[in-house]
Write a structure and sequence with these properties.
Length: 120
């Protein structure tokens, strides 16, 4: 039972706690995705799950196309995705998969994570 005065002084500490909670949610999401994929693998299903690169939520969905998204409509750009959990929105999305990865998949993941090749 902290009184309001001590609460005010703890503002900084509270923001640290919020950060920790976010991190916990992120880990929890990642664990859930992994478990779901393992379960499907046992059932013989091989699938891709789109996960939010920010909070690892598997609830990522195709964003409703807006007027400015004509490039995606004509196939010039990948469609936008959005995360209902943290509000993230991008054209690229990370995929968790239980398929065996081939070279092309690894390249796509590297692209999505913006891994830069070392320049010679
Ligand atoms: Zn998210």
């Amino acid at each position: 039972m902290a009184n309001p005065q001590t609460k005010k002084k703890r503002k900084k500490q509270q923001s640290v706690i919020v950060l920790e909670e976010q991190l916990e949610a992120e880990v929890q999401n990642a664990v859930e995705v992994t478990e779901a994929l393992e379960e499907l693998k046992k059932q013989g299903n091989r699938i891709d799950i789109q996960v939010c690169p920010r909070c690892k939520s598997p609830k990522v969905r195709r964003a409703k196309s807006t007027g400015g998204d004509m490039w995606a409509h004509i196939g010039m750009l990948p469609p936008s995705y959005e995360c209902p959990d943290c509000g993230w929105q991008e054209r690229i999305v990370l995929k968790a998969t239980n398929k065996p990865l081939n070279v092309r998949d690894v390249e796509l993941i590297r692209e999505a994570m913006e891994v830069e090749d070392e320049k010679p």
